[in-house]
Specification:
- It is a single chain.
- By secondary structure, the chain is an alpha+beta fold.
- It has one domain.
- The chain is 20% helix and 29% strand.
- The chain is built from 2 helices and 4 strands; from the N terminus they run βαβαββ.
- The chain has a 4-stranded mixed β-sheet, with helices on one face.
- Strand 3 and strand 4 form a beta hairpin.
Amino acid sequence: MPDFIVFTGDWITYRDSRQFNQLRQIMPHIPHGRLGTVGILGNHDYGFNWRMVDVAQRVTEIELPEVSSLWYRESGGYYGCIRESA
């Protein structure tokens, strides 16, 4: 198992609310780093024309089981998360 896993965005390509349910279904199966798992949002996580901050907000609300999450927000957008092993 690697020490860290890094996800570099585009958790979804937003078309409609079905993508949130699909993301919820796969999140329990993504790999975890031994020390931590880090991810950022990509442009597709912001919906159409990359301007739908509410879509990014919903992506940040989907949790990985057994890890803590911290998403931070700057300049009107969500820029990343840190997921540390519990």
